[in-house]
Design brief:
By secondary structure, the chain is α+β, with helices and mostly antiparallel strands. The chain folds into two domains: 7-36; 47-171, Sulfite Oxidase, Chain A, domain 2 (Alpha-Beta Complex), CATH 3.90.420. 19% of the residues lie in helices and 27% in strands. The chain is built from three helices and eight strands, in the order αβαββαβββββ. It has helices at 9-30, 52-55, 80-86; strands spanning 47-49, 60-66, 72-79, 102-108, 113-117, 131-136, 149-151, 165-172. The chain has a four-stranded antiparallel β-sheet with strand order 1-8-4-5, with no helix packed on it. A four-stranded antiparallel β-sheet has the order 2-3-6-7. The longest helix is centred in the N-terminal third of the chain and has 22 residues, at 9-30. Molybdenum atom binds next to loops. Molybdenum atom binds at residues 158-159.
Length: 174
């Protein structure tokens, strides 16, 4: 420690400046910034109610799958990753750094939930298809299954094929 000395007004202004800068940068580092680079600091992760409007304007695809009872069905809808990206989830070039620990909680009307890491949903990482379907065999699905259902053609167990999807909540792993 230096011996005690009076601070001049110039020194005080300098100390205040340094303290404010330190607070600002520590906030940036520990705040809600999702990536080590471009994403805007404090951009909130999306929490979305699933309605028909949410799917409008997204590319659609149809997949033909065999369900657990051995029946073949075709499901149509949109890629879950594309829907989340359009609504502000990290993707592509911004899916790096801290965002690699981000995931989406898919919630259903009966309280059922399943999670997908954003990296499982990003075409830059994987060719895996995770579909948010709004049609089965060309028709809307009944309230026992729909109106929205997750379909994942490459998964042998169907535990993440969430029926009656109501909400998509993107969060960061602690
Ligand atoms: N909302 C909701 N979705 C769900 C479940 C559930 O209990 N609630 N069970 C899952 C499990 S474990 C399976 S095997 C499949 C079964 O879907 P199916 O009855 O259309 O074959 O749905 C999945 N989706
Ligand atoms: Mo299951």
């Amino acid at each position: 420690m230096l011996p005690h000395r009076e601070c001049t007004p110039t020194m005080k202004r300098f100390l205040v400046g340094v303290t404010l800068a330190a607070l600002f940068f520590s906030g940036t580092a520990t705040g809600n910034s999702q990536t080590s680079t471009p994403a805007p600091a404090n951009s909130p992760l999306p929490r979305l109610s699933v309605t028909a409007t949410l799917l409008i304007g997204l590319p659609r695809r149809t997949v033909t799958v065999t369900d657990e009872t051995g029946q073949t069905a075709s499901y149509s809808g949109v890629d879950l990753g594309a829907l989340l990206a359009k609504n502000g989830a990290p993707n592509g070039a911004t899916l790096r750094g801290r965002a690699v620990a981000d995931y989406v909680v898919v919630k259903a009307a009966d309280g059922y939930r399943a999670v997908f890491a954003l990296c499982e949903l990003d075409p830059a990482f994987t060719a895996k298809i995770v579909l948010l379907a709004d049609q089965r065999n060309g028709a809307a699905m009944g309230s026992d299954v729909g109106p929205f259902r997750i379909v994942i053609p490459d998964e042998k167990r169907h535990a993440r094929w969430v029926r009656k999807v109501t909400e998509l909540d993107v969060v960061t792993a602690p």
